[in-house]
Batch of 4 targets.
Target 1
Amino acid sequence: MSSDNIEDELKPSFTPGKSILAVYCRSDGYKPGAPPKSAEEYAKLDAEDESLARWKASLGIVPGATSGDTSGPKVTVLTLELVSPTLPPGKKIAFNLADPNAIASLKKTPVVIKEGVEYNVRITFKVNHSIISGVRYIQVVKRSGIKVDKLEQMLGSYGPNPTGEPYTKNFEPEESPSGMIARSGSYSVRSRVVDDDGEVYADWEWSFKLAKEWE
């Protein structure tokens, strides 16, 4: 599979309209190619508008919310977790995406998922600086090199959390496949976190296999 085909598969299957945040952030003298304003600058815009100030504060866009080096990545994706009410007590399936060694092992060691159960993806990430808009999670699943599924979920638009804490997003529940054919072999997955502008914040590969029970 060529890299061009992979990139095509990871493109959004829909083109959402710009969020209110994106429109607002780009309306104040925005010119294509111009560097975006910082979260601090946007926090100070229209400061006299109380309702707008409250809305921005709910997104973490407040004066003094950011400090320090802004040359690093806007977003750090920390974990991806598979959550299911059918998981045995104490069992947790979570990927540490902040650890390069852990990411490298994901593709080699398939995760075991019980067939025919409800589960959902939970992602935890930290906004380090600036404003992010229209961020989404895209997941392409293949079996023997053939695409069998694509998951696409919106995270939304955010500013840095005033408390410095990460954000957590729970996606809509899905049901894992079932049956003897579904259980045979393993599935490869390519996951990506990307925003409206095509900026990629995380991109990794992992694998899973289906079984009659959780392991």
Target 2
Amino acid sequence: MEQVLHHMAKTVEKQLDDELERLMKQRAKLKQEWLANGHGEYTEIDGEKEFFTICNKSANVVCHFYKNDTPRCKIVDMHLRLLAKKHVETRFVKLDVERAPFLTGRLKIRMIPTIGLVKDNKTKDFVVGFTDLGNRDDFTTEILEWRIARSEVIEYSGDLLVPPAEAKKQRALQIQSKKTIKGRTDDSDSDLDFSD
């Protein structure tokens, strides 16, 4: 009986190893396709035609609609450049609204900067201005990453219901409460400290 169980365990283990190897090869192939399509970089595109071509080639697209003379667009550029390198599963581009009047009208883009989030060739969501990013110019890359992830156009391992700053506070409180519990002495009947 032990030999039969051992043989079954080995068979299942081999099947799992084969499946894992297949998935890793499939992911590596996908990554090569993404890189060949311009993923991993934050690039400027020429106009509407190129925008539609990119959306046809890539399942996930983040498009920053900007104007050159808008300082807040430079802030967005800085963050998206970092995110493009981190999230090769998504294509990150920027498009000057003056080069795309039809598209910006069709998408009802009225405020700059606006980040269009496209999934499977459909506009899924927009990040308009900095309202969703704490309404401040010094927002973190993490908050923008979290906001984009909420629209499912990037892979994200954090909690989509809790912004990153809040999640860090919660983790810090959990760690602090664990330290407090571990720091108590067993012979103490009280949490109060009567020493001077």
Target 3
Amino acid sequence: MGFPSKLWPGVAAAILVICAAGIAPITALPIPAAARLEREFTVAHNQARKAAGVKPLHWNEEFAEYAESFATHMKIGEPGTCEFGKQAPPTSYGINAVVTNLATDVSGVVQWWTQGSRFYDGKTNTCASDFKNSCRAYLQVVWGASETLGCGSVPCGEDGRLFLCLYSPPGNTKGGYPFYPWH
């Protein structure tokens, strides 16, 4: 086994000692940002969906790329600000988006969307009128007929981020039921 000892003399010696002792070296490589985003969004969504009793979503890389492009288009504001407000271009996907200037991880974003569950009345299949946006964000996360997910995140402002997820088939369809797509 040849190590570039001129480049990394300490590392090569340490690996040789570890291998001589019969211990397999552990390589801790950082997870690329895109792979981490995929894993975190998929896990967070599927935890919420499991709690609602619906099947898990599957990640789609093309959706993720489109979501990031979509988020870039939706971002507005002067440098140093983080605003969301441009009219969304027409799309056949379901959309959830949020802007935050707080240090928020992906699971916190999905948790923020799922807090809207308290504004959904399953008996009447309606959202409380004052909280429709929050309720609809929740319903999109747990919409039983949705199968595919792709999310993107773009920086805005000094420390803000815009998070956007696309879902297919889309949720919140008129007359549809979130947990029973066969109705």
Target 4
Amino acid sequence: MKKFLIVGLGNIGEEYRYTRHNIGFLALDYIAQHYNAKFETQRLGDVLEIRHKGRIFILLKPSTYMNLSGKAIRYWLEKEKISLNNLLVITDDLNLPFGTLRMKKKGSDGGHNGLKNIQAELNTTEYARFRFGISDNFDKGKQIDYVLGRWSEEEIKQLPERFDKIHQAIFSFGLSGVDITMNTFNNK
């Protein structure tokens, strides 16, 4: 069976749970809830395996904190013998309007420290990433407070529909490939 590693970036700890920076964790929690499944704490993260249409999707929430996510990703890629082509990283993006979804085959870290660490650990930018727009609605010098801040009431109302799109896009990535998934879900 073909395996995929789907990584949601975030920070561990209850104080970070519902923050904008934890969109990767929240998206994977939504999928787990959909399957009535629970993550299991393992080495370097919480892991859940889902089988879907002849594919194995290993969902990973690294326990290394955002800025050291690459260590957990490298470990799980090697442990499960998953190629870089089958890696998808879900992360927040300040440069996209709230709720905008954008998948890319490769790219820069865009100033995101989690992506910087992944690039350093994997020694490449050649992996798929799925960015969730959190907007840049903050005053100058308040970026950290914003990304580590909680969602607004209006944003909270829109999250379930966005999570459903992420859920669909993850399985499209595994079943149809990155190109078709980008064409189907980007900016939707």
